[in-house]
Amino acid sequence: MAKRDLTDDELVWNCLTCKLCQNYCPEDVDFIGFIKDVRGISRDNGGKPEYTHGEMMQTMARIVASGKFRQNKLGWLDKSKVSTDGEVALWIGCAPYVDTALKEVGSDQVQITQSAIELLNKIGIKPRILEEEVCCGHDMLWIGEEETFEELKDKNLEVLSESGISKLVFTCPEGYEVMKHYYPNMDVELAHISEVISDYVDEGKATFDPYEAKITYQDPCRLGRFLGIYDQPRKVLEQIPGIELVEMERNRSRSRCCGVSAWINCNQNSKKMQLQRMEEAVNAAHTLVTNGPKCITHFNCVKNENGFEKEIEFIDWTVIVSQTLRGV
Amino acid sequence: MTWEPSILVFCCNWCSYTGADAAGISRYQYPPNVQIVRVMCSGRVDPGFVLRAFHKGADGVLVTGCHPGDCHYQTGNVQAEKRVEMLKVLIDQLGIQSDRLGLEWISAAEGQRFANVITDFVSKVRGLGPLNGGEGL
User: Fold this and answer.
1) Which of A180, A224, B32, B115 has the fewest other C-beta atoms within 10 Å?
2) Same domain for A59 and A174?
3) How close does chain A come to B32, measured CA to CA in Å?
4) What CATH number is attached to the domain comprising A232?
5) How many independent structural domains does chain A possess?
């Protein structure tokens, strides 16, 4: 059999690393780990993906990793809602950058972060914001750009150990995933905001304002298949009076990806996947709630671009819960 | 060696590049700190290009195109304007002064204006200093 040069193969870059295949694999092959490593080798040999947005997102990560500039991304922050010496911190990550860059597409990422702060305030936590944090490096890791990832990781580890925090809360599953699996010796407890709120609901203190909607929940691959968090977000949504939670045809560990990962290789196949997923969502409900800020961006993009005519709305989980949870 | 700013200028094929040509033909003087990249339209300047220029060490980036209403492709320069506005906010968030990015309209006949715009922009960036000098960590 002729040898196939994988390092120069488009297929290497088209993989979404969504881990769906590993769900079905009877031999338990770590296929996405393989893809990640092949991408690194391919990069060493001059291969590269088709970057989306003119390589803007990757360049931002590289600029931040260079450490030459002092980031100024917290202009929107209401300082009275956060603390400077708390034990619990909220990860901001790339939200302000993506918000600025993709506002036109319908990517209101700062709103998600602000909702998270409000949500934490409502359960009695004034989160700390780590001003010196840099990009989590998720996208750089998954496109095989190890050296940039290492730089970002080392900076973040330093920031985290100096901060003296004991818990770090995420709104975006990507930062959570990459820190949990690829940052060594983390002595900080990591949690997704849905886990925090779910624990609060378990304590029996939570009450919600009604929200009339029939909604369906999209599991982001990082939160679901990578971290196994399926029940917590659903449990909280079910607590909200007026919400009827229905499942799409493929849900939980079988759920379909939003079509693009790590800002690379967004092509006709991605669009097709997104439209199929939206079709599934519309068959179930008219509101899709998800926990992936980037998932919302991708769905909004294809909705605007391809003129998806059926009625559907995309809302972030954090936003909907922060709107309805009653404060203490 | 004294520091000299290094500046990347995007010129559109139909107006500002021809304007740069006109400046050359008419022998209008302007500082040699600029490197011109010719693009078909200012609307072709992807935000990624500008960020990559800064990442690779450009002290300033100037996007130039046809005057509003004169775009060869009708609305390319309008797109360019939107992007530069967005980029100014974005680079400021990243820690790069937004004045390092400029947008100017130069027609094919405005050789003198091209020389003036370049002279002004170079002196502005010179005033800001090297990219990682003042604002760096």
Assistant:
1) B32
2) yes
3) 26
4) 3.40.50
5) 3
Q: A85 and A189 in one domain?
A: yes
* CA-based nearest distance B45→chain A, Å: 9
Question: What's residue B36's pLDDT?
Answer: 97
The reported pLDDT for the residue numbered B133 is: 59
Task: Identify the pLDDT of residue A220.
Answer: 95
Same domain, A194 and A210: no
Name the token pair of A203. 């304590």
Kindly provide the ipTM of the predicted complex, given to two decimals: 0.91
pLDDT per residue as tens digits for the range B16-49: 999 999 999 999 999 999 999 999 999 999 999 9
Is residue A1 in some structural domain?
Answer: no
Please tell me which residue of chain B has the smallest CA distance to A98.
B90
Q: Do B94 and A101 touch (CB under 8 A)?
A: no
Q: Is residue A77 located within the same domain as residue A192?
A: yes
In one-letter notation, the amino acid at residue A140 is M
Burial A23-50 (b: 16+ CB within 10 A, else e): eeeeeeeeebeebbebbbebbeeebebe
CA-to-CA dists, residue B81 to B46, B67, B75, angstroms = 12, 11, 10
| DSSP β-ladder status, A128-129 and A243-246 | unpaired
Q: How confident is the model at residue B137 (pLDDT cuts 50, 70, 90)?
A: very low
Q: Are residues A19 and A98 both part of a single domain?
A: no
Final residue belonging to a domain, choices A166, A199, A232: A199
Counted domains in chain B: 1
Q: Are A216 and A247 in contact (CB under 8 A)?
A: yes
Q: By mean pLDDT, which of A301-305, B8-12, B45-49 is the weakest?
A: A301-305
Residues of B with CB under 8 A from a CB of A: 46-49, 51-52, 54-55, 82, 86, 89-90, 92-96, 131-132, 135-137
Q: Domain residues for B106?
A: 7-127
What is the residue range of A270's domain? 205-324
